[in-house]
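Incident log entry.

Two folding requests arrived from the same account within the same minute. Monitoring flagged them as a possible duplicate submission, but the sequences differ. Recording both here for audit purposes.

Request one:
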Amino acid sequence: MLGALAEGLGYVGRAMLHYNPYSTIGFEIQICCLIMAPALIAAGIYVTLKHIVLALGQQYSYIKASYYPWIFYTMDLLCLLLQGVGGGIAATAKTNVTQLTLGSNLMMAGIVWQVVNLLIFGGVVGQFARDVYVNRRDLSDSARALTRDTRFRLFLAAVSTATVAVFIRCVYRIAEMAGGWANPIMRNEPEFMVLDGGMCIIAVLVLTVFHPGYFFPQMVGQGQKGGAKETGYSTPDIEAPREK
């Protein structure tokens, strides 16, 4: 929600610049909000890993499930700080080239760190998914049933899509920032609309449509009737196929 709000405010700033290219307020709004929105969206993605691990089996994760939010939120906070401070410095630089360069470098560092964060997240998810698949015959009945549930699979597809969308957006912003403020990539409005705003819209849309309240109720604590002790989760609406 915060990510979508920040993205929307950023485009309000861009609309202000459309009517007045010299609007200081419009420039400050768009540079600060658009640069931070993906980090806020990513925060909503990171929290899902904890609950997926708890639902499928802590034993298949090298890291304790409760640590995942703390690890990735801390890394995400660093991204926000670097981008926010850099955006603020750049937005108030006006004609000060040194200050503008400093702000741009901080923003670039924040975006690069966000890409690294997403890659680490993808690696951790990949390791967990591999171990779950390799040990699929040893899963608990509730976990096995959950992996076969269409709603849960759609939820996983939505989270994966959102992650890829945010990743594409961040890689694009690196290319955009690397060439400086007057480079051709930064001046290409259609590319910006697709690779920045478009990617954020896709991420927010799939996370909203495939909300865990319906597609992964274990994440929000719905329908708990005393499932597996080691996870605290149950899948009351899903029945595992009986062995013939």
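Request two (distinct sequence, not a duplicate):
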Amino acid sequence: MDYLVREGYPCAAERFSVEANIPPTIDLQSIQERVEIRNAIYGGDIQSAIEKINELNPQILDQDSSLHFALLRLQLVELIRTCTATPNGDITPALTFATTHLAPRAPTNPEFLEDLERTMALLIFPPDNLAPPLAALLDPNLRKDVAKRVNEAILSSQGERPNPKFVDLVRLRHWAEQKAREAKKDLPEHIELGLDPDQTGNEKREDSVMQGNGEAEPMIT
């Protein structure tokens, strides 16, 4: 239950509470708000995501300058992606956005300045011939990384654990298995977690988000 709620599976969480006879204490509205924010980020609509975060709790970004900068940089990446999609595209929107929203913040943190310089380099080199560090900025995984940070920040602001207990249990199991192998205990070469993806297929289809390429993806990251 804890994992489903935090990772954004409202339908699966509600069904689990019924089948497990657990009192319905799930705040489905809160889950849906996080799902909508993550949908926006996965779709490249960063301005909408920022607005939704501020509507939910404006202190989240006010108190986390690193996360705020990460979102703004991702928004700049999306602008650059758009303006470089066609030959001789107009880069003015990207330059204006960088000057207005990122340049004033960059001097406050060496990492901010480095990230901004690296991002602006996308305007110099052709998108089909980028060095790996630059190509990574256009990879959908950057959206996922930022979305994960946003989800954790929202949960923390609501007094919830950023990481579900399930993750801690898996880590504890891995640590115990590692210690047992170091002690030369007789263990199978590979121990399954006991999770069958086929049994959760329906929930994944119901509780899905859209990637930037338009394909549905489970909320689990």
